[in-house]
Amino acid sequence: xxxxxxxxxxxxxxxxVGLGLIGASVALAARRGGGVGTIVAYDASAAVRARVxxxxxxxxxADTAAEAVAGCDHVVLCVPVGAIGAVAAEIAPHLAPGAVLxxxxxxxxxxxxxxxxxxxxxxxxxxxxxxxxxxxxxPDAGFAALFxxxxxxxxxxxxxxxxxxxxxxxxxxxxxxxxxxMSPAHHDLVLAITSxxxxxxxxxxxxxxxxxxxxxxxxxIKFSAGGFRDFTRIAASDPTMxxxxxxxxxxxxxxxxxxxLEDLSALQRMVRFGDGDGLFELFTKTRAxxxxxxxxxxxxxxxxxxxRDAGQPVEASSSGGTGPRS
Amino acid sequence: xxxxxxxxxxxxxxxxVGLGLIGASVALAARRGGGVGTIVAYDASAAVRARVxxxxxxxxxADTAAEAVAGCDHVVLCVPVGAIGAVAAEIAPHLAPGAVLxxxxxxxxxxxxxxxxxxxxxxxxxxxxxxxxxxxxxPDAGFAALFxxxxxxxxxxxxxxxxxxxxxxxxxxxxxxxxxxMSPAHHDLVLAITSxxxxxxxxxxxxxxxxxxxxxxxxxIKFSAGGFRDFTRIAASDPTMxxxxxxxxxxxxxxxxxxxLEDLSALQRMVRFGDGDGLFELFTKTRAxxxxxxxxxxxxxxxxxxxRDAGQPVEASSSGGTGPRS
Lengths: 326, 326
Fold this sequence. Notes:
Chains A, B: Pathway: Amino-acid biosynthesis; L-tyrosine biosynthesis; (4-hydroxyphenyl)pyruvate from prephenate (NAD(+) route): step 1/1. Chains A, B: This is prephenate dehydrogenase. Chains A, B: InterPro entries: 6-PGluconate_DH-like_C_sf, NAD(P)-bd_dom_sf, PDH_C, PDH_N, Preph/Arog_dehydrog, Prephen_DH. The structure is a homodimer. Chain A is of the alpha/beta class. Chain A contains 12 helices and 9 strands. The first copy, chain A, has a 6-stranded parallel β-sheet, with helices on both faces. Chain A is elongated, with a radius of gyration of 23 Å. Chains A and B meet through helix 6, helix 7, helix 8, helix 9 and helix 10 of A and helix 6, helix 7, helix 8, helix 9 and helix 10 of B.
């Protein structure tokens, strides 16, 4: 951590392990924010490492995880949740005394369980989850502004020293994020309903649509502007990351999915028995939630369904010459 | 219909009944496209009629539906599907001989059933459904470019004269839309999967999230950027319109919902039993569908999850002064 008071640095040497969308954005945000001295990067894929060099995402791109973390006062693991235990085991012997270890995983209980056994004495672990992302993956998808005005949730353990938690908080605040803290278990429940189950049902409906006999895929694609295309955006997220989320947050996902299915049964009955008042009441309530999300700045109020800038420009025809003559 | 060849007009006098998002956009697109002579508007709500006058959406705003349709060679009903039968009954005696009647309803079978019995001899009915919209409602939400590059589906009856179908097609092409034709029954099946069921499950998950005891509404709202907020956008659509869709496309919606639920049961089992390969395979396939939708121009490839221009500008801090000192 920063030695000289007033140096403006939160960490002297930051190591980012895993340069996907989030890892690349962390590197870019760290460079822009200035709260970090040297940025070291490592990715298990040689192709990704080469691309990280080309994109200039880091000051140093190391060839091994051991080399990468050596001498770093902060290490952020930006790998899929399922890989995090193995990566922790690999780097553990090479972590500098006093270093702060963190991650960006979308699941926290399983990450704490996977990392804690490998933690050397004198290294603090402060699990973190920036609630931000796009439907794109890989180092090219990263951008420095990804975390601006988004929430980053820290789930510090009882053993996490206060200074380590404060350091991670300062780093994310420097990225423009807002920081909250909660327990790993509560995090996993909150994210199950705000992120994991929405992804599960988006993946599901896109799969259903792709396997119908009565409606062709080409029709599904053509007429997707009626709502379906918004689900495909979510269902285009990284498959490895999301496989690992569901494998590692099973209990909370199944609990929230159970609630979703109970409610859907009630809604299905309303449709079957033509309960217009029930439908109208639900559809009015859900509109209010949307208004709150826009009000707290987690969403834009722009009419996105219209995708005004998405259409190909079409010549406004004033000829209409193919019209009928009466 | 246009008398003078070369006048460039598809219809001489267009009447828009119902000035919500779609009706207002039809009026604006008609004015911009130039394929129409005079634009007459009527809405059952006096407040909406007054607003239509203020916004200058039409050349004439009539006080009654009867007055509005009199002398018009084209009448487009832009009212909720559940109201369309009553509106057809009200205007039928006043429709000009030779007039072409159309609509913009999201359901076609029920609309054909509701309108056909009221159709006077000499008036053609060409049902239409522009697959376009936003999450906003009312005359202020309309804009001329809404239909650009979007599909408009016509479901002409056997009795629809060819010239009438061609006129409606030319009108929508003049709005920048692409036009397809199919049977009402097939339309209702296609839209059930591409639009109606997606809306149903979006409304449902937003309702589920709002009624949890373990996660507060304020947490749902704060952390909505993880996927949930995209569902709230869809679940903010007009309650009356959507109530009527589900009441009037019950069979197809229940059929597609049944398929969705079968698939979701299989997915739920994959999560429960930790079938990582099964999850990865599904998540990879769904990504490909997304790519196709972008490829055919029904969606932008921009990384919308990031909502780059949505965040409040955050000062990039280079102080990080609150960080720990080692």
